[in-house]
Amino acid sequence: MSADARQVVSSLRLEGVARAAVRPAPSIHFADYPREVPKREIQVSAAAARIANAMHLHLD
């Protein structure tokens, strides 16, 4: 049974490799990517602000 399980796992890996091999390559052209990428907003909780202030980090 363990040999069967190993065979199934290896065949699943080979299928994934085969799919990746026929997938088109990503574009290298500058125009294909967004020029303005918004930054993620970071929210500081009140508890984290209190801890930072106690450590004199002063998060605003």
Relevant terms:
single chain; 60 residues; mainly alpha; 2 helices; flat
Walkthrough of the structure:
The longest helix has 21 residues, at 2-22. It is built from 2 helices and no strands. The protein is an all-alpha fold. 50% of the residues lie in helices and 0% in strands. It is flat. 0% of the residues are buried. The model has no long low-confidence stretch (mean pLDDT 81). The chain has helices at 2-22, 46-54.
Shape: flat
What percent of residues are in strands? under 5%
Number of helices: 2
Task: Count all strands and give the number.
Answer: 0
Biggest sheet details: none
Structural class: mainly alpha
Weakly predicted, low-confidence segments: none
* Oligomeric status: single chain
What is the arithmetic mean of pLDDT?
81
* Radius of gyration computed on alpha carbons: 25 Å
Order of helices and strands: HH
Helix content: 40-55%
Distance linking N and C termini: 60 Å
Please provide a brief summary of the model.
The protein is 50% helix and 0% strand. The protein is mostly helical.
